[in-house]
Structures are given as C-alpha cells and as structure tokens.
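Request: Mind sharing a record?
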Amino acid sequence: MEAWASAGVSIPRTSEAQESELTQVDLPAGDPTKYLEPGDILGFIGNAHVGMYVGGGELIDAPQTGEDVEKVALTGWYLDNLDGAVRP
C-alpha cells in the first residue's frame, strides 16, 4: 500500500479488498511471470499473505512481523501457493 501511495496511487488497505476492488491478472497454467508486471500484488494461500512482483521472476516479501523484508524468487513455496494477482 505504501509503495503504491508513494507513486500517487491509492489502493485498498486489506488484501481482501485489494483482491475484490483491483483488476485481476489472468494467470493461465504454466509460467505466471509471463503475465505479471512489476507492481502487481500477488496473493498466496487464500490471499492470507501478499507480496509485490518486481520483475525478473522476483517479488518483495515481508515474511512475518519481526523478519526483514526481502527480495525472493517466485519459485518453490511462493509459486506453489500463488493464488492470483491484482494490478492497481
């Protein structure tokens, strides 16, 4: 939310509201990175966790309170639990 706000774009606060109010990104089977754009908000495990796609097959993730925000590959757990993406 803060990243988009710094770019002058207001988005809903909660992941549930983001999922229902923002444009859905169609993610056919296969490699989702072909359809994602930097800034897309990715929803994982029933949209209980989100991250922001930054391009090049990577996303920004804040794992949980007390852990550092990190740039990680959209592979393994992230790819297996990717439920969808929205675009502000």
